[in-house]
Amino acid sequence: APLVVAVDGPSGSGKSSVSKAVARRLGAAYLDTGAMYRAVAWHCLNEGVDLSDAEAVAAAAVAMNLDQSTDPDVEAVRVGGTDVTEAIRGPEVTDTVSTVAVVIPVREELHRRQRAVIAAAGRMVAEGRDITTVVAPDAHARVLLTASEAVRTARRSGQLAAAGETGVDAGTLHRQVAGRDARDATVSTFDRPAEGVALVDSTELDFEQTVAAVLAAVED
Ligand code: C5P
User: Fold this and answer.
1) Which ipTM value was assigned to this complex?
2) What residues pair up with 66 in beta bridges, in sequence order?
3) Pocket mutation for ligand 1, best pick of 20, 31, 33 (most atoms within 8 Å of C-beta)
């Protein structure tokens, strides 16, 4: 039967790894919408688009040829035939993604694409910042995944270390996480879940407990 699970949360909340695990357990596809905004940022940087020119950024987003895996076991993102799976996680993209994400026509274009991908999948776990509220407000289950800022900064630090990026000190990391939160606050705030959205606070939960809490919200 069709099943759409929407998961939103701030950076470092663990929403990507948790959503992938939930998708595997449900035999569902997985959509990382943050990767789509990152792909737009990469595309603009690659094409030399002036990021302060909202119209040019919007035009680049509409023209972008994006091919993204929705298999939770295969992470693969291609833009116009170039494999950008790694590049979209790099510091240049991470620093510019919030700038392209506030451009309304960029959001409208990606919302359209996201709704099409979700409709085509049938069973899907879609993850981002406005999935429970804007992209799929009628999803079967909607979850807001949060964690304290301290825990999110620590997880981000662990991710960077795993990626071999050492040398970012704790203070810098904290400013980066808080800074991206502040820039993204114009798109979404995570102070409280929207009406009908289940709150899962993972501050005191380990990974398996968090996955179980999201699955419990799906079964409700
Ligand atoms: O989740 P991730 O950190 O990869 O998201 C990257 C950026 O994409 C976020 O910082 C935010 O600016 C943007 N984004 C968004 N709406 C979404 C998902 C991501 O604006 N649904």
Assistant:
1) 0.98
2) 79
3) 33
